[in-house]
Amino acid sequence: MRRRVRMSVFVSAIVLLWDIFAWAQTAADDDADVVILKEGLFWRPEGVTWFHTYVDPWWLLAMTVVAFLMLWVAKWMDEDARRLGVYPVKWNYTTMSICFLSLVAFFVIPPYVSVPAALVSLLVVVCRYVPVRNRRVLPSRRLFTPEHRVLMRKKFLRVFGIKSRELERKLARVAKKHVPVTLFFQVGRVASPAEAPPDERDPATVVKEVVGQAVLRHAREIYVVPKAGRFAVSLKIDGMEHSGGTLERLRGSALIGMVKHLADLASDEPHFRIQLPTVDARLTVSVRVSGEGSAERIMMRLTPDGERLRRLGELGLTSRQAETLRRALEQAQGMMAVTGPAEMGSRTTICAMLDSLDPYSRNIVTFERPVTVSLASIEQNDLTRMEEPLGELLAEKLRQDYDLMMLGELPDKETALVGLTAAQRQQFVIAHFELSDVVGVVEHLFELGVEPPAVAAGLHTLVAQRLVRVLCQQCRLKTVPSAELLQKIHVDPSRVEFLWEESSGCEACGRTGFHGRTGIFEVWQPSQASRKLIAEGAEAAELRAAAQRDGMVSLQHSGLMLVVEGVTGLKELAQVLKTGT
Ligand SMILES: [Zn+2]
User: Fold this and answer.
1) Residue 41 phi/psi, 5° resolution?
2) In this predicted model, what pLDDT tens digit does every residue of 181-224 receive, in sequence order?
3) How does pLDDT run across 365-420, given as a tens digit for each residue?
């Protein structure tokens, strides 16, 4: 940007010099060479009809003022758009092209047309930009709000000594709508929009701004990382990282300092609570600080209040898959293996399953690394805080009388055997893996050295899952797929006229093109025949064929059903299926 500003200043300086030069020349020239137009506003060399050299000092002054105003607005818009992440390139090009066109207009159009035209076009751009940026910021930082307009009118009238009761009432009414943003820990009152704008570097303001922006964009995690003398903010939205703009060094340091102050870093789980009434949010922010000195960075995880655990029926399972899982959970023995790459929802699925059980009629124990969601009336063991190896812990717990055991990991043969043996006796075991599909679980157990017959006897149900991002219903785009493509994905071309895919996004989805995520699943309950194959230690391809014979809908197929329904796009599905394989 600085280079562009320098360029523009350079160009305007040339225009200025050219005008002065032309003026000096015309003034010195013989009158015969110069035609003075009737309007008397500018001179033009004879014979040249398209080109005007403007020498009237007053118009020259007006043009210079307008040029500087434009540059100032362009610079402000560029910085503001970058900070808020609202299409900075688009707005930059818009303002720069208006600056350029105005400069050209100053040359070739009479000034009484070009100067107002330049001002009007600038005003139009600003009027289009302000609502866009206002939606991205907290109310205290909005511009040209109804409140501002009333205040301006009031000030204007006061110049003429007029006091309007009606305006006072209107102002009070508008101000009432804007609830000031408050921090739980903040002592005293935070400035309301009617008062002076808050200090840019006020740490509480920076925290509110950054968290508020993340809430508006449906982000779950915020990363603030030092980068080239500034701080880069990135937001994790639906599992993908997006830029949240940058913070100037002092504001970034203020943010980190305040977050560290709010979250008690000495505690086990550093966190603070924040209330943002203007974006209608109350949340808990868990904080992790890493690095030291100038390399210090923070991660904030946002958990909105009242966010409840998803129920089994809300995860994206087909009704048949959900029914299969419910029935499996009623079993008194057997192992259910739940698998999926990290952060692909398998832990949430396990929590939803445990939550669907009645903890009073069944004795439930879990071993997790770490405990992510606390479940009522269930004994949860955090492996990160235990020193004994999992195998020993399990052996000890097995002696106690549990009905259902959840194992967050099966790292070795020993634990796998303990789990499978327990599953064959009087316990139902839910085991979590980070493998790509159901057949992968069987192969993994073979690789650990567990005898195939033990695997076949212990495994009851296998579940694999992924999360796909859901297309934003406001801005998704229709595409007409080719017949070959449809054939390739095994979809009958006569049944599908068009598919949907993501656009570059809209305001509703925070410019991501997606809104939330949903699960795709494959659920396999091996039949007797398949069990026999497992016991024989069959190859992966054979097992996959067996699963299909048992009526399993594969991950790919589940995903394609969502694509045909327009819930997600092909590109997104392909990318998600690639992870973990
Ligand atoms: Zn959208």
Assistant:
1) -95, -30
2) 333 332 233 333 333 344 556 788 888 888 988 888 889 999 99
3) 999 888 878 887 888 888 888 887 777 778 777 777 788 999 998 888 888 988 89
**pLDDT, tens digit, for every residue of 412-450?**
888 898 889 888 887 899 999 999 999 999 999 999 999
Contacts with 459 (C-beta within 8 Å, 6 or more apart), sequence order:
334, 335, 337, 420, 423, 441, 442, 526, 534
Question: Can you say how many angstroms the Cα of residue 441 is from the centroid of all Cα atoms in its chain?
Answer: 32
Q: How high is the mean pLDDT of the chain?
A: 81
CA of 236 to the centre of ligand 1 (A): 17
Q: How far is Cα 41 from Cα 66, in angstroms, rounded to an integer?
A: 18
Amino acid at 60: L
Rounded to whole angstroms, the Cα distance separating 134 from 143 reads 7
Provide the edge-to-edge strand list for the sheet that holds 404-407.
Answer: 379-382, 364-368, 404-407, 428-433, 334-339, 459-471, 514-524
Which residue, chain included where needed, has tokens 């026999």? 532
DSSP 250-318: HHHHHHHHHHHHHTTTTSSS-EEEEEEGGGTEEEEEEEEEES-GGG-EEEEEEEETT-PPPPGGGSS--
Please report, for residues 70, 120, 204, 569, the alpha-carbon distance to residue 77 in angstroms, rounded to integers and kept in the order given.
10, 17, 24, 34
3-state secondary structure of 203: helix
pLDDT tens for each residue of 312-353: 888 999 999 999 999 999 998 999 999 999 888 899 999 999
Tokens (6 digits) for 248: 């100037």
Residue 558 CA to ligand 1 centre (angstroms): 24
Strands 404-407 and 428-433: parallel
The mean-pLDDT minimum among 154-163, 448-457, 552-561 falls in 154-163
CA of 505 to the centre of ligand 1 (A): 4
Determine the distance separating the centroid of ligand 1 and the alpha carbon of 468, expressed in angstroms. 16
CA separation (Å) from 478 to 215, 508, 571, 574, 576?
A: 29, 18, 14, 18, 21
Element (H, E) at 245: strand 240-247
How far away, in angstroms, is 146 Cα from ligand 1 center? Answer: 27
> What is the distance between the alpha carbons of residues 53 and 13, in angstroms, rounded to a whole number?
15
